[in-house]
Amino acid sequence: MNDLHATRFTLLAGGSDARTEMERAIALSESSACAHVFTRTMFDEARAAVAESAPESRLAGLAFTSKDLFDVAGQPTPAGSAVLAHAPAAQVDSLAVARLRAAGGVLTGRTNMTEFAFSGVGVNPHYGTPANVSDTATPRIPGGSSSGAAISVASGAAFIGLGSDTGGSIRIPAALNGIVGFKNTARLTPADGALPLSTTLDTVCAMTRSVRDAVTAHEILSARQVTPGSVPLSTYRLAVVKNVFLDDLEPVVATAFERTLATLRATGARIQEIELPELADLQVINATGGFSAAESYAWHRLLLERSGAGYDPRVVQRILRGAGMKAHEYIDLIHARRDWIARIEKTLAPFDAVVSPTVPITAPSIASVAPGAERDDEFFRVNALLLRNPSIVNMLDGCAISLPCHTAGELPVGLMLWHAAMHDDAVLAVALQAERALQK
Q1: Which of 207, 259, 339, 381 has an alpha carbon within 20 to 30 A of 92's alpha carbon?
Q2: CATH code for the domain of 148
Q3: pTM reported for the whole predicted model
Q4: Percent of residues in the chain assigned helix, strand, coil, to nearest 5
Q5: Across the chain, what does the average pLDDT equal?
Q6: Is residue 327 exposed (0-12), middle (13-18) or buried (19+ Cβ within 10 Å)?
Q7: 198: domain range?
Q8: How many CB atoms lie within 10 A of CB 112?
Q9: 336-348 residue pLDDT tens
């Protein structure tokens, strides 16, 4: 499947045209692979926009989708919920949507998500759950919370899936669907016009089909130029964190990760194993509920009073953890995080990037975690496993990218390259090199 760069080159060379590519995207959007992917489609508007597109623009009139929590002018912003389905329409596009449009992208629809972005599984009891594209025999979870955005990219219906990442909501579905998801340092991309989960941890970012497309999407969303460099992989110093990140790996994930490390070493990568004992502090730091619970409760408390019965009970359970947090506990949390970040950054300073499995498991079946109290224990077990590795990077205020590292015939496995805040360009540089090595 061609990525954005290859398709744009074909357009410029006259091998296709934007209208043909848009009709292909719409046909895939309407296919069975995209069942439950969209909460709203805009195909007629997309066809009209393509007629006005310029092939020399960065996105060349090609399709992108937007997670349901971003404002689109003239539409409500339900964020995967039923209680906001008939909310007042947004007056203007969110800044992220506006920037993608200004770069020549054409929005084809709003994508399904975990209600209010509060889980890494991707199950939605209101709009249905889109199935992972990797297995047509057993419907598997898409990962969340940016579930529909991931399937839109993985199925070929879009070149960019705009989403958000609070604890892994871009990287988890990217890993489970075998695509690329880049979570930049949060401050680099604006959250204007995006319904929040946690104002401290939320990051506006995207999923794509390749690392080079991730660079393009990030440059557009952040309005900055990436300077990844072109030095060989052997130039970089990489770390593997042995504790927590490698715990309880499913055999297929462990095999793919070890195979990937061997491939990178054969390419010349210098990889050193390290420990981060500070990871043990996270349970104590977040003991009172953490940022997502406190900040989501602050946003939802009045809506819960009016319409709580319309929420997904699993989402309500997590939001209500924030109801009991006291002001001094929230302030203590801010200070504890700042201290924790400083200690982690000191350990990571000698390295250009850290190499980890994105998540420790492959995608389980939708049936095993579908809505229903009898499956809650399994749902929360899977959710905790999926969030474990990627959420550490959010707590670090860091940046990370997930790219596929499985081989043909295996369920998708993600490789996560990450570091502390503002190391985005180095992480992307290593990712470009790693992707090249893994595709040989």
Answers
A1: 207
A2: 3.90.1300.10
A3: 0.98
A4: 45, 15, 40
A5: 97
A6: exposed
A7: 1-278+332-440
A8: 31
A9: 999 999 999 999 9
